[in-house]
């Protein structure tokens, strides 16, 4: 699908819609509405209709959305109608947990490689994975055609590793290190810092 100037906040809601639609399909449902989606997700029906209208018309007034059709269209938009090869950099607690998590394969992501620079971890088995030496990271990523990486290294090493990932052709980094990364404009970064999210929530607590 051709890239449009869609606000990132809208793109961020699409996976949430897709997850809810997939759950409905698992329940044996065939049709839903923006009202029902909104009630499930805590998002207004008007917002859902506005978000989806950025990409075309997917339902008819009075009849709602065909769940299978809308799921397929959102998958196409998000480019998860295919399987993306993913690598993990960092085999510590977070990286090991990511390697063991089975949910990625069911939603369009296949974990292929895991790297670390600690001699004690190189060669270690994590489920079906063998931790590889980070010294070979660039060549291995290029060989496997990996464009998506989950980065789980200490903050002090994150930027240096990110620079190497960019040089290896990586275009998307999910960053678990508690530090912002400087990358070229054509490389997407999402930051996952649990403390930031906790602090955002405690604002609302007494």
Q: Can you offer a commentary on this structure?
A:
There is one protein chain. The protein is α/β, with parallel strands linked by helices and 206 residues long. It has 2 domains: 8-77, Arc Repressor Mutant, subunit A (Orthogonal Bundle), CATH 1.10.10; 84-196, NAD(P)-binding Rossmann-like Domain (Rossmann fold, 3-Layer(aba) Sandwich). The chain contains 8 helices and 11 strands. It has a 6-stranded parallel β-sheet with strand order 8-5-4-9-10-11, with helices on both faces. Strands 1-3-2 form a 3-stranded antiparallel β-sheet. Helix 1 (8-26) runs antiparallel to helix 4 (67-77) and helix 2 packs across helix 3 (45-53). The longest helix has 19 residues, at 8-26.
Outline the secondary-structure elements:
Blueprint: H1 8-26, E1 31-32, H2 34-41, H3 45-53, E2 59-60, E3 64-66, H4 67-77, E4 84-89, H5 93-100, E5 109-116, E6 125-126, E7 129-130, E8 132-133, H6 137-144, E9 148-151, H7 155-167, E10 172-175, E11 188-191, H8 194-202
Parallel strand pairs: 4-5, 4-9, 5-8, 9-10, 10-11
Antiparallel strand pairs: 1-3, 2-3, 6-7
Helix pairs in contact: 1-4, 2-3
The CATH class designation of the largest domain is Alpha Beta
Going by helix content, strand content and strand pairing, the class is alpha/beta
First-to-last CA distance: 46 Å
Q: Within the CATH hierarchy, at the fold level, what is the topology of the largest domain? A: Rossmann fold
CATH level-four homologous superfamily name of the largest domain? NAD(P)-binding Rossmann-like Domain
Low-confidence stretches: none
Strands, count: 11
């Amino acid at each position: 699908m051709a890239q449009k100037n869609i606000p990132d906040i809208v793109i961020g809601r699409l996976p949430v819609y897709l997850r809810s639609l997939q759950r409905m399909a698992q329940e044996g449902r065939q049709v839903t509405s923006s009202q029902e989606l909104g009630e499930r997700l805590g998002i207004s029906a008007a917002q859902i209709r506005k978000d989806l209208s950025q990409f075309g018309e997917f339902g008819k007034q009075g009849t709602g959305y065909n769940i299978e059709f809308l799921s397929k269209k959102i998958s196409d938009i998000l480019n998860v109608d295919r399987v993306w090869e993913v690598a993990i950099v960092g085999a510590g607690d977070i990286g090991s947990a990511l390697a063991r998590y089975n949910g990625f394969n069911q939603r369009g992501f296949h974990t292929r490689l895991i790297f670390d620079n600690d001699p004690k971890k190189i060669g270690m088995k994590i489920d079906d994975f063998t931790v590889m030496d980070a010294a070979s990271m660039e060549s291995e990523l290029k060989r496997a055609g990996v464009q998506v990486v989950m980065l789980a290294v200490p903050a002090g090493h994150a930027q240096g590793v990110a620079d190497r990932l960019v040089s290896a052709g990586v275009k998307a980094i999910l960053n678990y290190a508690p530090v912002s990364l400087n990358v070229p404009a054509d490389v997407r970064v999402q930051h996952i810092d649990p403390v930031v999210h906790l602090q955002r929530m405690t604002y609302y607590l007494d």
